[in-house]
Design goal:
heterodimer; A: Glucose Oxidase, domain 1; TIM Barrel; eight-stranded parallel barrel; 22 helices; 14% strand; B: 90 residues; alpha+beta; Histidine-containing Protein, Chain: A; four-stranded antiparallel sheet; 3 helices
Chain lengths: 553, 90
């Protein structure tokens, strides 16, 4: 066999940095940079500036179109990359450079190219990986304008069959335009995991290998497996490697179709019992992913993020903005947005609260106990939540309740703040729900009585566990207590007791589980058996828990 | 004149998304909004209404930037910038 032919069929391994989860197969196809090499002569300042203006308008329309496509295909975060491109396109620093080059006799296309290159150079010179990765964005924008000026069309990279594209680098715009029907993955010799190209690849679910070892164009058309997990491109894979890939592909397809079907299906057991499946979030930023995953509501919105890591306290307006953002986002869903009021204490100290040291912080001033002592802070938060309730089905949840008087005192504060809002003619939901966390055995045992004062309950299993067994779950020497079946039983019995009491108190009262136990599919059946109406878990667990619920009788 | 310091806590420093959030908010005010960063070669300043200028500061996680706001709506602008820092910059 001639040497050349041999190298075309020889098995080779190319290493790089993998992006994505699943391995894919395709034929190698090299793409060269498509920036035209031709130049146009200078036509005079006015003509060049007019050409520039119309090219900028066209580029803006292209970027907006890619942004819309990306939003539909890969979500808001991925699409925001193209908002940045639009800002770069209109940036005065970029336009000043272009205009002054045109004024000194450079054709618009060249002026755009050199302005883009010099600003990309500025980004590359920054001593920071994330920031220097933005050079690729600047180049993408300027080469788009240049291409339009030179009369080129935006080209969609497509072709026949399954292909793995290989390029020196792909711009974010190119990546968003990839035809996922035939491009199974891509390999770049340059690039970085922090580039927008990499972020898009993840969001679009296209596996990629960046910073790959270079290989020659002779391998055009060769069969290859891209395995992002091990960061390898296997060129001319063995029969064994191909059959392993077939297994992976089958698994991936089964997983994908399962998740696709699941996100649209209700969380209902085989016998028809409907379970509310909500998401736990810790900040408004997490709400979007929760929304995308099909969560019907927010079962636990921890408000601590607004208070932690700072010396002062968040203002009412700042809190209102954060709460109402989530309320608006979920206004198209059936479930509520349950905001848990500030849950800090001696172990999670807030500098702004000036806490005193306690001998026994787990049994000390925390949750509602602290809020009822610092009523000014509590009132500010309650007002912010009330105001946010004008934008969606918001509910208030109180942490660490042990006693009915704590609920009554809080409801008095809520009533007073409602009065003030009415007087100030500020909108809020008159029927806003008030509920409590069940974290103490006392709250579980007295749930029937407490239900006279509240609309819903949510079990914080981590704390309920530790207060029931008098054992710290972090302490590995106590694992024989906390990890044993026998340790679970008393907690389940308390939940059963609470749910019986709550359901007896009123048909519209509900009890949910928002602690770690809710996400443990080995316990789903037991929790539903104990009477839970709702489960609230962090976003990645929603599909799995839903699948489990649907398999239960 | 209003001014305040903010210490960046976002992983990538003042990269595209957070810088974009600042520019989008700053554009609505008529006040001049400058962001200053101290560096070994002396202070560097950027116009908060210009993305490229802002990203070129190269402000990284853990570094402190100073907002200098001057103009008729400086008080509102300062409040808004603080909000953007906490909510969108990190």
């Amino acid at each position: 066999m001639p040497l050349r032919e041999q190298s075309k069929t020889k098995r080779r391994e190319i290493r790089g940095i993998g992006i994505g989860e699943w391995a894919v197969w395709g034929k190698i196809r090299f793409v060269s940079s498509e920036i035209p090499t031709k130049t146009l002569a200078y036509r005079g300042m006015r003509e060049e500036k007019e050409a520039l203006a119309s090219a900028l308008t066209e580029a803006r329309a292209e970027i907006a179109a890619i942004g819309r496509r990306t939003l539909a295909a890969a979500g808001r975060e991925a699409a925001s990359i193209f908002e940045i491109h639009e800002m770069l396109l209109c940036d005065p620093d970029f336009l000043d450079l272009v205009n002054s080059a045109i004024e000194s006799g450079t054709p618009a296309a060249d002026a755009v190219a050199s302005a883009g290159e010099s600003l990309a150079g500025v980004f590359e010179g920054l001593d920071d990986e994330y920031l220097s990765a933005r050079a690729a964005d600047m180049r993408d924008v300027s080469s788009r304008v240049r291409r339009i000026l030179l009369g080129g069309k935006s080209e969609k990279k497509s072709g026949e069959g399954q292909m793995i594209l290989v390029a020196r680098d792909l711009s974010p715009g190119d990546t968003a335009g990839l035809d996922t029907a035939c491009v199974t993955g891509f390999v770049t010799f340059a690039g970085s995991v922090n580039s927008h190209t990499a972020i898009l690849a993840r969001a679009m679910d296209i596996p990629a290998l960046v910073r790959a070892e270079e290989f020659s164009k002779e391998l055009e058309g060769a069969s290859a497996i891209l395995d992002p997990e091990s960061g390898r491109l296997l060129i001319n894979p063995t029969a064994e490697e191909m059959s392993r890939l077939a297994d992976i592909t089958a698994k991936r397809e089964a997983e994908r179709s399962r998740l696709r079907t699941l996100s649209a299906l209700p969380a209902v057991t085989k016998s028809g019992r409907r379970i509310a499946l909500y998401a736990n979030i810790g900040s408004p930023a997490e709400a979007e992913a929760a929304h995308r995953s099909g969560a019907e509501g927010i079962g636990l919105f921890r408000s601590e993020f607004l208070f932690m890591g700072r010396g002062d306290l968040p203002s009412e307006d700042e809190q209102y903005e954060a709460y109402s953002r989530v309320a608006r986002l979920f206004s198209d869903r059936t479930g509520p947005i349950v905001i848990r009021t500030l849950d800090v204490g001696a172990d999670k100290a807030l500098p702004a609260l000036g806490s005193e040291a306690e001998d026994n912080p787990a049994l000390g001033m925390r949750g509602i106990r602290l809020c009822l002592e610092k009523t000014a802070i509590f009132r500010t938060q309650l007002r912010a939540i009330l105001r946010a309730s004008a934008h969606g089905r918001v509910a208030i949840m109180l942490p660490m309740v042990t006693n009915i008087d704590e609920i009554r005192r809080t409801k008095r504060l809520i009533a007073e703040e409602k009065n003030r809002l009415r007087f100030e003619e500020i909108e809020f939901d008159e029927n806003i729900g008030v509920g409590i966390m069940i974290e103490t055995p006392a709250a579980a045992i007295m749930a029937k009585e407490l239900a006279g004062e509240c609309d819903f309950f949510s079990v914080g299993t981590n704390d309920l566990f530790q207060y029931t067994l008098a054992a710290d779950r972090q302490n590995s020497r106590l694992a024989y207590l906390t990890e044993a079946e026998s340790g679970l039983e008393p907690v389940l019995r308390l939940i059963r007791l609470a749910s019986d009491g709550i359901h007896a108190a009123g048909e519209d009262k509900w009890i949910g589980i928002c602690g770690e136990m809710a996400a443990d599919t080995a316990l789903t059946e037991a929790l539903l058996g104990a009477g839970a109406d709702e489960l609230s878990v962090s976003t990645p667990y929603i599909a799995r828990v839903k699948e489990k619920i649907r398999g239960i009788e | 004149m209003q001014s305040f310091d903010y210490t960046l806590n976002c992983t990538g420093g003042l990269h595209a998304r957070p810088a974009g959030a600042i520019v989008n908010a700053a554009k609505h005010f008529s006040s001049d909004i400058l962001i200053r960063k101290l560096s070994p070669d002396g202070p560097k300043e950027a116009d908060a209404k210009r993305l490229i200028s802002l990203m070129s500061l190269g402000a990284k996680r853990g570094e402190t930037i100073t907002f200098l706001i001057n103009g008729p709506d400086e008080t509102d602008a300062a409040e808004k910038m603080k909000l953007v820092c906490r909510e969108s910059v990190g």
